[in-house]
Design a protein that fits this description.
The chain has helices spanning 4-13, 27-38, 51-62, 84-98, 121-149, 161-164, 170-190, 208-213, 217-227, 236-247; strands at residues 18-22, 42-47, 74-78, 103-106, 152-157, 195-202, 258-261. It is an alpha/beta fold. The chain has a single domain, classed as NAD(P)-binding Rossmann-like Domain (Rossmann fold). It has a seven-stranded parallel beta sheet, sandwiched between helices. Mean pLDDT is 90; it is low at 1-13. This is SDR family NAD(P)-dependent oxidoreductase. Belongs to the short-chain dehydrogenases/reductases (SDR) family.
């Protein structure tokens, strides 16, 4: 066993990779991109929100961790990851700027709390488009180069809401359940090529979107302390650490798996 610092040193010492993170303007995606950048990897941030450009500037200004090397470039691209043409164009630009994508983190997501009876067919399609279709489209765009190289990592963000279901999130939970199925099936497709595909399932994580949905953070913290085995609030860095672990060189024998990051909220 190694401590957290040693793990980061070992990851940083590994070959620098080209990493794409979708939904990277803020929240979990931003933290994941920051982690890879700090570890010395070149990172492309994709998002439909123009805020992604400012986020990239912030990460570039912060710089990689000492000793990480000069490879750690940060670029940003506006992209609608639910649209095939937009994805194709964005990945082509990343390829021109950084090289072939070696690590993909499908983080883009959309959730809206509402009574399921108010969900329209258009709402349903939108949830699947952003949460599930996007993972397929971006994976399809980068996987051929990974297969040709004999190495690659794809990490998909699902949710613990899939494990137990949750009221007022029917379309979101359904889409995130689809992400698990997609992860397992794609792992079967790509395993022989040296490409692993895994999922991370965050629990209650403090993000901008959570704050918008649950403005009473004190009450939420009390509730989560009662249901989690670890009573503290989850952070975006907790999720970023899990994603980075699955992307490591040493994680080559882990594929098709779901890593739950929820402080022991759901226990099978």
């Amino acid at each position: 066993m190694t401590d957290g610092g040693s793990a980061r040193e070992n990851l940083s010492a590994a070959r620098p990779r080209v990493v794409v993170v979708t939904g990277a303007a803020q929240g979990i995606g931003k933290a994941v991109a920051a982690r890879f950048h700090a570890d010395g990897h070149a990172v492309a941030l994709l998002d439909i929100d123009p805020l992604v450009h400012e986020t990239a500037r912030q990460l570039a200004a912060a710089g990689p961790a000492p000793g990480a090397g000069a490879f750690a470039a940060v670029v940003s691209e506006l992209a609608d990851v639910g649209d095939d043409a937009s994805v194709t164009a964005a990945i082509a630009r990343v390829r021109e700027r950084l090289g072939e994508v070696e690590v993909l983190v499908n983080n883009a997501g959309l959730s809206r709390h509402r009574d399921w009876r108010t969900i329209t067919p258009a709402d349903w399609d939108d949830a699947l488009r952003v949460n599930l279709r996007s993972a397929f489209l971006v994976s399809r765009a980068v996987a051929p180069a990974m297969e040709a190289a004999g190495w690659g990592r794809i990490v998909n963000l699902s949710s613990v809401t899939y494990l137990g279901g949750q009221r007022h999130l029917l379309d979101y939970v359904s889409a995130k359940g689809g992400v698990i199925g997609f992860t397992r099936a794609l792992a079967r497709e790509l395993g022989a090529s040296g490409v692993t595909v895994n999922a991370v399932l965050p629990g209650a994580i403090q993000t901008e979107s959570e704050l918008a949905s649950f403005p009473d953070q004190e009450a939420l913290a009390k509730r989560m302390a009662e249901v989690q085995s670890v009573p503290r609030r989850g952070t975006v860095d907790d999720v970023a650490h899990a994603v980075a672990f699955l992307a490591e060189e040493r994680s080559s024998f882990i594929t098709g798996q779901s890593l739950v990051v929820d402080g022991g909220w759901y226990l099978d």
